[in-house]
Design goal:
Layout (H helix, E strand, L loop, with lengths): L10 H6 L4 E3 L11 H8 L4 E4 L14 E4 L2 H12 L8 H11 L4 H8 L1 H9 L4 H14 L1
Parallel strand pairs: 1-2, 2-3
Length: 142
C-alpha cells in the first residue's frame, strides 16, 4: 500500500476543490462532533454525513448538508447532488453551499459563548474547588 503525504497547507485546498464531502464518522457516546465536517464547512464544502444523536448541531439536512442512515440513501444523495452539474453546480448543491457559507465561524462563536464564561472566571471570587470543577467542565465542552 502506498499513501501520499498531504502537507497541512494543502488540506484546505484539497477540500475546497471537491463538490461534496462525505463524513462516515459515528459517535459511540453520541456527544462528540466530527471535526472533519467543521474542516469541510470551513472550506465551503457541504457534506453528506451519517446520522447520529448530536450531528444536527453541525449538519442541518437540506440546509448545509444531507444526512443519511443507509448506504442507499447516501448513493441517492450523491446521485442527486452531482447529476446535471454545471460550472455553477445544480440547484440543490448550490443551496447547500449557500447554507455552508452562513455557518458561524470559530471566532464569533467563541466571543459569544466561551469568552464571557472565561472572563467571569477571572473576576469572580469562587472557592478553589469550584473553580477547578468549572474549568474541567469547560475544557470538556470545548
Amino acid at each position: 500500500i502506498v499513501t501520499m503525504w498531504l502537507e497541512p497547507e494543502d488540506y484546505p485546498l484539497l477540500l475546497g476543490s471537491a463538490d461534496i464531502g462525505v463524513c462516515l464518522h459515528t459517535s459511540t457516546s453520541g456527544l462528540d462532533l466530527p471535526m472533519k465536517v467543521v474542516d469541510m464547512f470551513g472550506c465551503g464544502l457541504p457534506v453528506c454525513a451519517i446520522e447520529f444523536d448530536c450531528l444536527e448541531e453541525l449538519v442541518q439536512h437540506g440546509k448545509n448538508g444531507m444526512v443519511f442512515t443507509l448506504s442507499d440513501e447516501l448513493a441517492d444523495q450523491l446521485g442527486s447532488l452531482l447529476s446535471g452539474i454545471t460550472a455553477e453546480g445544480n440547484a440543490m448543491l448550490q443551496q447547500l453551499r449557500e447554507g455552508v457559507a452562513g455557518f458561524e465561524r470559530w471566532q464569533p462563536n467563541w466571543a459569544r459563548n466561551a469568552a464571557p464564561v472565561f472572563s467571569d472566571l477571572g473576576t469572580a471570587r469562587i472557592p478553589d474547588s469550584q473553580v477547578t470543577f468549572r474549568f474541567r467542565v469547560l475544557i470538556g465542552i470545548l
